[in-house]
Amino acid sequence: MATNVAHPKNGSSVELCCYGGRVPQSQKQYPVVDDEHARAVQAVRALARASRVLERASGELNLAHYRVLSAVASGDERASRVAARLRLGKPTVSAAVDALCRRGLMTRVAAADDQRAVALSLTAPGWSLLDRVEEEMVAKIRGLSARTPDPQRLIESLAWMGGAIDQAHAERMAAG
Questions:
Q1: Which pairs from 15-19 meet CB under 8 Å and 24+ separation?
Q2: CB atoms within 10 A of CB 153
Q3: For the chain, what is the domain count?
């Protein structure tokens, strides 16, 4: 079901569609919203929904564990770096690492440069699961992007978003 709703502050109108609702034939499939803020809100909501779609793409690994595995696979071998990169609390990352280690997907070893620190690494089953989950997620994103006016541009824009997130993280780390 679709409903036109006026924004209470600026009066702009956005057509909202509920999950599973039918969009009338008269509505364009990809409505253009003139208000930049309303477009940004649509983007935020789409990203929130996309995160759930990605999590459902694999029943083998929840999104929180995926994020930790992929951070370690990308070279963050210390739990504190993973926590900072993902903007998660250290106890949250520690619990995820514990669960991933129990499943045999990750190991902890003493860091070569600091005996007090622990280095994280993926096991062979961890790499295998990460590859499988990412293939399932890529297939889901490709399937969804194929429904948009410019699938390649959407994928490219999402990759840019990842780069922007990495840049913001590096700036936060440099600022202390």
A1: none
A2: 11
A3: 1
42 within some domain: no
CATH number of residue 86's parent domain: 1.10.10.10
Q: What is the pLDDT of residues 116-130, one digit of tens each?
A: 788 899 999 999 999
Spatial distance between the Cα atoms of 6 and 73, rounded to a whole number of angstroms: 45
Half-sphere exposure of residue 47, counting CA atoms within 13 Å on the CB side? 12
Return the pLDDT at 114. Answer: 75
**142 domain-assigned:** no
The verdict on residue 72 lying in a domain is: yes
List phi, psi (to 5°) of 110.
Answer: -60, 135
Q: Are 105 and 121 in contact (CB under 8 A)?
A: no
pTM of the model: 0.74
Tell me what pLDDT residue 116 has: 77
Q: What is the mean pLDDT of residues 107-113?
A: 84
DSSP 154: H
Widest CA span in the chain: 66
Spatial CB neighbours of 154, under 8 Å, sequence gap ≥ 6: 145, 148
Is residue 51 included in any domain, yes or no? no
